[in-house]
Write a structure and sequence with these properties.
The protein contains 14 helices and 13 strands. By secondary structure, it is α/β, with parallel strands linked by helices. It has 2 domains: about 180 residues, 3-Layer(aba) Sandwich (Rossmann fold), CATH 3.40.50; about 160 residues, Rossmann fold (3-Layer(aba) Sandwich), CATH 3.40.50.2000. Helix 3 packs across helix 4, helix 4 runs parallel beside helix 5 and helix 8 crosses helix 12. About 40% of the residues are buried.
Length: about 375
């Protein structure tokens, strides 16, 4: 009987966003199955603080920092090898191209260590990010299992030479005891939002692929003749300053709230009368599942795995980037909407964090520690 592996989740992060929350939710669910985990956070040299490491430690998770001062740092490889030496039954679970890069380098000294990778979604809106995607695809051919959160990721992997038998679809899951419609909610009074306001809301990174500026544009189109319409966003990112500038220019700034990055988003969703996800690209967004668990009416763009998640449910799908259609959908939700219990039931049945953990546990156990069908 083989020893249960220790899972070392290797992550290079600029903040605590959807992918990070997915991992932070997975770890306690794995622990409930008897699988121990540690978050190995590769330092981001551009940040004074390391948000993922600090957040993991603040909630009592096992976490270590791997020093990294640039694109190729031998100290990062050495630190990761130290972790492998200290725990002889370790399986590396990498999240992102940098984690994969250093895991492959570290494994040269520990050739029996298996590597699992999860693709949370690709962002390729700059030349550098496109190059990193190509690099990641090349590295994934040398990894034992590649887990995808969206079926749309399968074909690019196979075209890049990743064998079909090494690809596994494992959709994200959320903690339905944490995200629920009757949970604690942010006070409208404290936020200065009238009780009769209709609040459109989102929980997102304020970056181009999430399209917060498009959401603001769509909101502006309807808000001028819908005086009780409000907009609330939780999140932060590179487009925050531009968002605030455009909001000020619109003259609607008194009817919008930017909450910044929120450590307890379960209190944010029940504030919304309608959750809007305007992304231009996605895998399977955790925010969508969280909003569904909170039984919020949904408007979402038809990208990634979203249409599959919402199939036959009372939600509105819109094409990505079409602001006119998005605005029309937002206007439509101002009318009465049916009960949203079906959204939560879908999450409970198919997208719980417990189901996600069971799926990953099966991947780990099939690989086994010390018994790896190595990639060529």
């Amino acid at each position: 009987m083989h020893a249960e592996p220790h899972i070392l989740h290797v992550f290079s992060s600029a903040g605590v966003y959807g992918a990070e929350h997915a991992v932070l939710g997975l770890i306690p669910a794995l622990a409930a199955l008897g699988i121990d985990s540690t978050v190995a956070c590769i330092d981001n040299p551009h940040l004074r603080e390391q948000p993922l490491y600090e957040h993991a430690r603040s909630i009592g998770m096992s976490a270590v920092r791997l020093p990294c001062s640039g694109r190729l740092d031998h100290a990062t490889t050495r630190a990761l090898r130290t972790q492998l030496h200290q725990r002889p039954h370790t399986l590396l679970h990498v999240h992102g191209y940098k984690g994969a890069f250093y895991a492959l380098r570290a494994r040269r000294a520990f050739p029996d260590v298996p590597i699992v990778s999860t693709l949370h979604g690709w962002v390729t809106n700059t030349r550098a990010l496109w190059i990193y995607r190509l690099l990641e695809l090349w590295m994934l051919r040398r990894i034992q299992r590649v887990c995808i959160v969206s079926e749309s990721m399968r074909q690019p992997l196979q075209l890049a030479g990743v064998p079909a038998e090494r690809i596994a679809l494992i959709e994200n899951g959320v903690d339905t005891t944490r995200f629920r419609p009757d949970g604690p909610v942010l006070s409208r009074d404290e936020l200065g939002i009238p009780h009769d306001a209709f609040v459109f809301g989102g929980v997102m990174r304020l970056s181009p692929e999430k399209n917060p500026l498009g959401l603001l544009d769509a909101f502006t189109r309807i808000a001028r003749d819908v005086p009780n319409a409000w907009l609330v966003l939780a999140g932060d990112g590179s487009q925050r300053e531009e968002f605030e500038r455009r909001l000020h220019e619109s003259g609607l700034g008194t009817r919008a709230r930017l909450l910044g990055a929120h450590s307890d988003p379960e209190r944010v969703y029940p504030l919304f009368d309608c959750f809007v996800l305007p992304s231009l690209t996605e895998g399977l967004p955790l925010a969508l599942l969280e909003a569904m668990a909170c039984e919020r009416p949904i408007i979402a763009t038809e990208v990634g795995q979203i249409a599959t998640v919402l199939e036959d449910l009372p939600a509105i799908l819109v094409p990505p980037g079409n602001l006119e259609v998005l605005a029309a959908a937002m206007r439509k939700t101002l009318a009465a909407h049916p009960p949203m219990g079906a959204l939560r039931r879908r999450v409970e049945a198919r997208y719980s964090v417990a189901r996600m953990a069971r799926d990953y546990a099966e991947v780990y156990r099939r690989l086994g520690v010390g018994h790896v069908d190595h990639a060529a």
